[in-house]
Amino acid sequence: MDKQLHRLDTLQARDPQGALHTVHAYEHLVRLPVGADPFGQWEPTGHIEFRLASGQRLDMPQDDVFVVPDSGLRLTRVSDNETAREPAAA
Asked: What pLDDT is recorded for position 86?
């Protein structure tokens, strides 16, 4: 079964030192055969994942909090109003 990621959203999160990081939210899609269509149809699986702009995967143990699994670094989502004041770090 073919799978792909579809970016849903891009947001900002702040680490404990105050630096901003770009976070992307993706939904998993699978391709389902539809009649004679050789390309099929992409459907969401209901699974969402979060990644830093660098591609590193993030866990989300609670709303608006992300954790980098390898380092344990905690990032907290910030509002759009806060991110308008500072440039983001990748």
From this structure: 57
